[in-house]
Design a protein that fits this description.
This is Acid protease. With about 375 residues, the chain is mostly beta strands. The chain is built from 5 helices and 28 strands.
C-alpha cells in the first residue's frame, strides 16, 4: 500500500490512480465474485454505465479492453446482483437497458449496493464503460461515485481532487475522494463558486469564466462572462467563435475551418505568450505552448511541421456549455470539486514532494487551505 493510501485511511478517504490518454480511465471491480473492468471517470455524467456482456459494443471490441475481461457486465454471474428497473436515459436519450444494484470497488473502497446502468440497446454505441463523478439527479436512478461514497460514510463530503503526473503530458494521474494532497499543488488554492443552473442546460460542473486574455490584454471582452463546463471527455478547450476569432487574429490566423480547430506554427510551443483564464478574481496564466499539439481529433492526415491549436471554436459541445474546458486545460492545474457547496478550487500543480493529505470535511469552508477569492489575484 502506498504512503498516500496509508494517509488516506487516517483521514477517511480513498485514492485511485487513473490512466490519462485523452480522458481519465481507472480500474474497478463489480459484482461477486469481483470482476475487473476499465471505466472512464467522467465529470460530465452522474451515474455508472456499463455495456452488457452480449452488447454490440463489446462484440466489436476485439480485445474487450473497454468492456472488461468478460466483455461486459453479466448479472447472472454475480451473486450480489439485484435487478431494480428497466430502461433509463443517457445524455438525454432513452436507452434500452436494465438497472442493477451490485457491489463496486474502486481503490480501497467497496460500495455494497451501487446502481449499474447496463446498456443492451444495439443502436446505442458507448465508446467505453463510464463512471460518473458529477451531480446526482434526485429525480432518476442516477448516483454519482462521490455521492455514493459520501452516503456510505467512506468520505465526509461529496468532494474530490485530482492531478496528473509531472510535466502535464504524463499518462497517469490520481483522483482523491474526500481529500486534498497539499504536496501536489503550490499555494494559493483559490475557490470560486460553480454555476448551479444555466438556462436550457442540466446541472453540471461549471463555473463563470469572466475573460480569456493574452498577456493581460483582452482581444474581445464583450462576450463575457460565460459559463464554462469542465469536461474530461473533451481533449480540447472549446470557446465561442466570438472569443476564438479575435484570439486567433492575435496570432495572424483569420481562416477558421468547419471543424473549428485551426493550424498554428509549431514554434508556438516555445512562445513566451501567456493566455490568462479568468474566473472572477482568480486568474490562471498559462503559456500558449500548452495549447499547441501535433495531432487533431478532426484530421486524419498529418504533415511535417504542422501543428494544431488546442483551443477551438465550440461547434459540437454547446449542449454542455458556452465554453468547455477539456483535458488540455485540466492537466495543467490541480483541481478540487466540492459538490456539496457548489465550489471549484484551482492551484498550480506541484511536480514533486512527499504526500500531505488532508480531509475535506462537511459544511462550508470544508476544503483545507482554500481561499474564497474576493479580490483580484494571480495564481
Amino acid at each position: 500500500m502506498s504512503p498516500a493510501e496509508n494517509n488516506l485511511e487516517k483521514v477517511n478517504g480513498i485514492s485511485e490512480s487513473f490512466l490519462y490518454e485523452t480522458s481519465f480511465y481507472a480500474n474497478i471491480t463489480v459484482g461477486t465474485p469481483p470482476r475487473p473492468m476499465r471505466v472512464l471517470l467522467s465529470l460530465w455524467h452522474n451515474a455508472c454505465y456499463l455495456d452488457a456482456l452480449d452488447s454490440r459494443d463489446c462484440f466489436l471490441q476485439m480485445s474487450h479492453k473497454d468492456c472488461g475481461p468478460d466483455g461486459g457486465y453479466n448479472a447472472s454471474k454475480s451473486s450480489s446482483s439485484r435487478f431494480t428497473a428497466s430502461g433509463f436515459t443517457l445524455d438525454d436519450e432513452d436507452i434500452s437497458g436494465k438497472v442493477f444494484n451490485d457491489t463496486l470497488t474502486i481503490g480501497d473502497a467497496t460500495l455494497d449496493t451501487f446502481p449499474l446502468h447496463v446498456i443492451t440497446d444495439p443502436n446505442h454505441i458507448v465508446l467505453s464503460n463510464t463512471l460518473g463523478l458529477g451531480y446526482t439527479d434526485s429525480n432518476s436512478s442516477s448516483l454519482s461515485l462521490p455521492r455514493a461514497l459520501a452516503d456510505a460514510g467512506i468520505i465526509n463530503s461529496t468532494a474530490f481532487s485530482f492531478w496528473t503526473g509531472p510535466g502535464g503530458y504524463s499518462y497517469n494521474g490520481t483522483i482523491l475522494f474526500g481529500g486534498v494532497n497539499k504536496a501536489k499543488y503550490v499555494d494559493p488554492l483559490h475557490t470560486v463558486p460553480m454555476v448551479p443552473d444555466v438556462d436550457g442546460l442540466r446541472k453540471a460542473l461549471r463555473a463563470n469564466m469572466t475573460n480569456l486574455s493574452i498577456m493581460g490584454v483582452s482581444p474581445s471582452p464583450d462576450p463575457f462572462p460565460l459559463d464554462a463546463a469542465f469536461d474530461n471527455q473533451a481533449s480540447l478547450t472549446y470557446v465561442p467563435e466570438a472569443v476564438a476569432r479575435p484570439l486567433f487574429k492575435h496570432f495572424n490566423i483569420t481562416d477558421i475551418p468547419n471543424t473549428g480547430q485551426v493550424k498554428v506554427p509549431c514554434d508556438m510551443v516555445s512562445s513566451n505568450t501567456t493566455l490568462i483564464f479568468e474566473f472572477g478574481s482568480v486568474k490562471l496564466p498559462i503559456p500558449v505552448g500548452y495549447f499547441v499539439r501535433g495531432d487533431s481529433p478532426y484530421e486524419y492526415e498529418y504533415y511535417q511541421d504542422t501543428c494544431f491549436s488546442g483551443i477551438a471554436v465550440n461547434k459540437h459541445y454547446q449542449h454542455k456549455g458556452s465554453i468547455v474546458l477539456g483535458t488540455n486545460f485540466m492537466r495543467i492545474v490541480y483541481m478540487v470539486f466540492d459538490l456539496d457547496n457548489d465550489e471549484v478550487s484551482f492551484a498550480w500543480r506541484n511536480e514533486s514532494g512527499p504526500d500531505n493529505i488532508l480531509e475535506i470535511t462537511s459544511g462550508k469552508g470544508s476544503v483545507p487551505g482554500a481561499t474564497i477569492s474576493t479580490q483580484a489575484c494571480m495564481i
